[in-house]
Amino acid sequence: PTAALRKQFSLVLLPLTVNDMSNEEKITSLLNTILTRLDDIETKIGTATPASADDANLEADVTEASPAVTGYEEHMSTALEPFLATLASLNGEKMGECIREAWVAIGAIIAAASTSKKPAEVTTALMPFLKPVQDSVGKIRKMRLPRELDHHQRSIEELMGVLSWVVIDKTPVPAIKDTVGAAEYYSNKIRKEYKGKNETQIAFCDQLKALILHLADYVKQYHLTGLSFNFKGGAFPSAPNSNAPVVETPKAAAAPVVAATATAKAPASSSGGINAIMAELNAKKTSSGDSAATGLKKVTKDMQTWRNEYKGSGNVASTTAPKAKVAAPVPKTAVKKSFPPVCKFVDVGAKWVVEYQTKTSNTLDGKSALTIEMTDPKHQAYIYKCENITIDVKGKCKGLVIDGCKRVNVLFDDIISVVELVNNKNIAVQTRGVLPSVSIDKTDGCMVYLSKASVGVTNFVTSKSSEMNVSWPEEGAGGEEYKEKPIPEQFLHKLVDGAITSEVSELYS
Fold this sequence. Notes:
With 509 residues, the chain is an alpha/beta fold. It has helices spanning 2-13, 21-45, 53-64, 67-89, 93-113, 122-142, 150-159, 172-194, 199-222, 273-283, and strands at residues 342-346, 351-355, 369-373, 380-384, 387-394, 399-403, 406-412, 418-422, 425-431, 437-441, 444-449, 459-463, 466-476, 479-486, 491-496, 499-504. A hairpin with a 4-residue loop joins β1 (342-346) and β2. 36% of the residues lie in helices and 19% in strands. The protein is elongated, with a radius of gyration of 43 Å.
């Protein structure tokens, strides 16, 4: 029968190489002539039979034997699956599922190309097949993963770029290898963090690079100048189909390489979408070929309802409904968190701790005041977050720290070391004894009153502060008077003989 002869002739043609193209064409022409005559004879005598199951099995055998499909199956089992197993051990199963779906979708493209001729527009023809790849990349980017997997997620996003090789013509291998650098930018951070601490993390980095290089080797062997097609095959399918060859993976043997074949939808009919719009516009063209918009009245600015120039004339229909007035949102007043006032002596550090004191927490003679008695010169005081209060420190002490206060006045006797003013606003300090040093940092508005004993002794260290002033007593004609001068904030810097010199600005002269 003709079907049996077809099978035998196909087996004869399979071993032919590319160098035997001229012989193959002659033999094919001769066999086609013989088969055509046999078909005519069978038709006349009524013995013609449809193609047997053996023919279908033969075609399936040819497809399954495609080296590109077999090589891709080996690539997935050798390089992809170990990488996904390591990723799963790092709690990255969700990313692993997306990676597998994308790799399987590329397998569907390779399988379809092995049985089809090269289409005129390769990229356009592959778009339905690339949809699962695009979806997988989008899922990975949108994942909210633990912070420790941040670099893993970034490196995998770079890894997914290698799958674009199917649409790269002539030089897909260099494009794949270029991805190594981008992925290693993040994987090297993982190496640095876990080197000598976690071998699984290091294995993730090694297998990530190995996966890219293994794919490059596969493409170099089977698709050196771009995706390989079968010049003897049929037309390239418009969408994945469930009849494509099945390539099983070690993890899910029942899942075909063409993962999204069963669920992929056929492209939209040409009767809908943009094609329908263009067809309708073309139908409305005049016989002279004018556009469908020919003859329409021009809309001027005063007719456009959204412009300020709109006049609201009666012959212009409003295309937008009047907007309802929306009440302005009531601004929320920030509720200031309050803390209980603290004034206690702490043995650790031998210091008084004064915190969150205000004008209502303590009063002295009708005024907001707080008194601290220093019994040992080794003691010190730490004043924090106080507002609108006067604090009187009596007795000799080691030092004072005033931090984050507003509109606070501090009086004290002798200081052994330093008074530190940090992060304050509108603060005043006054010494009744000796004050060796004052440190002012990040403070806006500061007044320092010195005693007679401190004049010529006190030094000031300032940084990132403004509105600093110092006042001291001097003997005048009318008795003791206080003089006040600002502490300079502006300086003139010069480069002289390789060194920086600084002078106070002329504003303070």
